[in-house]
Amino acid sequence: MKRHPRRLGPASDRIVHSYKRSLNGFAARLSEQEAQKLSGMEGVVSVFRSKTRKVLTTRSWDFLGFPQTPQEALPLEGDVIVGMLDTGVWPDSPSFSDDGMGPPPSRWKGACINFRCNNKIIGARAYRGGATGMAPVDEEGHGSHTASIVAGRAVDNVSFDGLAAGTARGAVPGARLAIYKVCWQDDGCDDADVLAAFDDAIADGVDVISLSIGGWVPWQYFEDTYAIGSFHAMRRRVLTSAAAGNIVDGDGKFVGNVAPWMLSVAASSIDRRFIDKIALGNGQIIVKTEEGSTIAQQIISSCKPDDLAKGSYKGKIILCPTQDTSIYGSDPPFAGAAGVVVVDDATDKANGLSLPGLAVSQDKFNKILAYVKSTSNPVGAISSTETAANPQAPVAASFSSHGPNLITPGILKPDLSAPGIDILAAWSPLSPPWGSPKTRVIYSIEYGTSMACPHASGAAAYVRSFHRDWSPAMVMSALITTATPMNTSGNAGYSELKYGAGQLNPSKASDPGLVYDASEEDYVAFLCAQGYNATQLALLTGSNSTTCPAGGDLNYPTMAAHVAPGKNFTLGFARTATNVGVPDAVYDVEIIGVSSTRGMEVTVAPERLEFSAQNGTATYTVSVSGVAPPADKVVSMAVVWSDGHHVVRSPLVVYTVSVDMPTEEMAP
Predict the structure, then answer these.
(1) What is the pLDDT of residue 661?
(2) Where is the Subtilisin-like protease fibronectin type-III domain (predicted)?
(3) Distance (Å, rounded) from C-alpha 334 to C-alpha 312?
(4) Which CATH class is domain 272-389?
(5) What gap in Å lies between CA 533 and CA 541, rounded to an integer?
(6) Average pLDDT of the chain?
(7) What confidence score (pLDDT) does residue 338 get?
(8) How far is residue 387's CA from residue 626's CA, in Å, rounded to a whole number?
(9) Beta-carbon neighbour count of residue 668 at 10 Å?
(10) Marked catalytic residue, from 22, 60, 93, 142
């Protein structure tokens, strides 16, 4: 609930949102005393504070091995509707053309409010604290970018100022989009608005919800609007795909969207990168994968805001010795300068600068400083940006929030990774890219788990187009168990706690062979086993009649356990596989990576699963025992089932990584 300390008016004036289509509740402006009083009333399940969150193609789909949709397959995709909870959309982008598209599915119950829809964008609403008359037009670019990654039409000959040239397309260009604008440039993304959007999207009839929004920390499920909204979506067989989160200036270290009924998506690289160089007067060439151009004449080393405001930098390259993301896209401080070099340890992503420049790691910056101090006339030249291959891809993005899962350490989050670095997609001309006020584009390059998430959302929509009857858990399982492993040399130092099951592989996900299903009752049993009481369950499910069923070992497609360093341990994971392949199927198991477990024993019983019918089920148990590794270590294995055609891979992670204890509001 949204609370304001000022004097409040009549009750009818204080209702922000009334949730009555898919959920049952409301958001209102209340004083602390009123909130406490309301929470004690009979029939009131929960009262909690509304928090404010933040928003988190020419090559990426080809890199994933996902070909462009043939024209004859587009009608199949046309039955799928993806709800985008974001900053809105720019409707005039070629990516959202409805040329050749028929009318929306007859089941669609949505609306277009203060917006011109078509047969591509079939619904559009805006939410801002209960205000009316708001248009869901994208003024920031973020929502257009994510929507086009999911379902943008194929648009040829696009680029960002010549970079990343090619055909921009989404995963399911024939699918429909429903836009729910919940994020605003000045106000962020208010929880009350997001929950209202969930309420409408579920009732409108979307199949997938894409959520590139998050906070700095995970919240207990009964206090997390996204967990609550996605739980109700799951009830109505709608999958929510969410960004794992971004690390910004040290915040957002741990993955934020962790509910087991939502897909949590980390970011990774593609096999294309942008290279920039600065050639120094002593012959040294410093290389960084970034943007920039032209020649500069003199280097200075002061970059404090007050100094920049007073100085004259015509023809000079400014060195910014501290990490300050606010300079990206900034014009006034650099007025007249020939270029800029900034420190940014996240050197795997593109950053927008309004003049020739590049971002370098601290050690490379130190080399530049050493040169500057060695001569009375330091000079340098920043070269034009080059496009190069990235043979190590996919590599986990440095900025992508990682595990462990602080809420339920036994559930591996993030679930998988998807392209989230240097992604070209649609943009809004109302928003200058990278904050540069003089530039207007309709396609831009962006990075973040915000870009990774819609790749997974699009893949989920693709799977849904083949399997309309699958539950959200089945779709999640198909995406997770067919992911490409990322335990490569390029990811040395990372583990599944960073990239999940691996890189998204949508082409295989439509035919996974086996899936791991879970129902609402299974999730409730899981929460009960985690220690949630009846009151806390009611906060999440919205029902005071929720009881704890038997069970508790969630049928999740991955396995994870947090154990004490150096101690003996014994673990058991029970899983039930559903055959979604040919009726008569036999799967044999292999444990991958067990040779590196150092003193651990891993067994699977039985070692063969036999099915006689499609949708038949078989249960097995994975047992792990031994001595835990030292502190801050991760031991990674995988339980792999194969019938000679399908490969169903479930990562198994045992870790001793020390984590910050959850805050009081996180603890059950």
Answers:
(1) 46
(2) 553-654
(3) 9
(4) alpha beta
(5) 12
(6) 86
(7) 80
(8) 48
(9) 14
(10) 142
The answer to whether residue 13 scores a pLDDT higher than 70 is no
DSSP letters spanning 454-509: HHHHHHHHHHHHH-TT--HHHHHHHHHHTPBP--SGGGTT--HHHHTT-B--HHHH
pLDDT class for 340, splitting at 50, 70, 90?
A: confident
CB atoms within 10 A of CB 452: 34
Q: Position of tokens 């994870």?
A: 560
CA distance 23 to 194: 13
pLDDT (average), residues 438-444: 86
CATH class in words for 68-270+395-510: alpha beta
Alpha-helix residue ranges (DSSP H) falling in 270-378: 305-310, 362-373
Task: For 136-192, write each residue's pLDDT tens digit.
Answer: 999 999 999 999 999 999 999 999 888 888 999 999 999 999 999 999 988 899 999
Active-site pick, 330, 450, 465, 636: 450
* pTM (whole model) above 0.85: yes
Segments making up each domain of the chain, as ranges: 8-52, 68-270+395-510, 272-389, 514-518+554-656
Return the C-alpha torsion angle 662, 664, 665, 668, nearest 10.
80
Is 142 a known active-site residue? Answer: yes
- Per-residue pLDDT tens for 113-135? 999 999 999 999 999 998 888 99
222-243 burial: b if 16+ Cβ within 10 Å, else e: bbbbbbbbbbbbbbebbbbbbb
Structure tokens given for 667: 């603890």
| 190 a catalytic residue | no
Closest by CA position to 263, among listed 511, 480, 576: 480
The structure tokens 């199927």 sit at 585
CA–CA separation, 455 and 424 (whole Å): 12
- Give DSSP secondary structure letters for 175-214: SEEEEEE-EETTTEEEHHHHHHHHHHHHHHT-SEEEE-EE
Tell me the fold of 514-518+554-656: Immunoglobulin-like (2.60.40)
Q: In what order do the strands lie in the sheet with 183-184?
A: 183-184, 188-190, 52-55, 213-214
Rounded CA gap, 247 and 189, in Å? Answer: 18
189-206 average pLDDT score: 96
Catalytic position from the list 50, 86, 93, 224 = 86
- Distances in Å between the alpha carbon of 589 and those of 360, 542, 640, 648? 46, 41, 6, 9
Closest by Cα among 223, 230, 227 to 48: 223
Which bin fits 166, alpha (ψ -120 to 50), beta or left (φ > 0)? left
Share above pLDDT 90 across residues of the chain, in percent, rounded to a whole number: 58
Span 300-326, mean pLDDT? Answer: 67
pLDDT at 29: 64
Annotated catalytic, 450? yes
- pLDDT surpassing 70 at residue 590: yes
Does 350 or 641 have the greater pLDDT score?
641
- The answer to whether residue 305 scores a pLDDT higher than 80 is no
pLDDT of residue 53 exceeding 90 = no
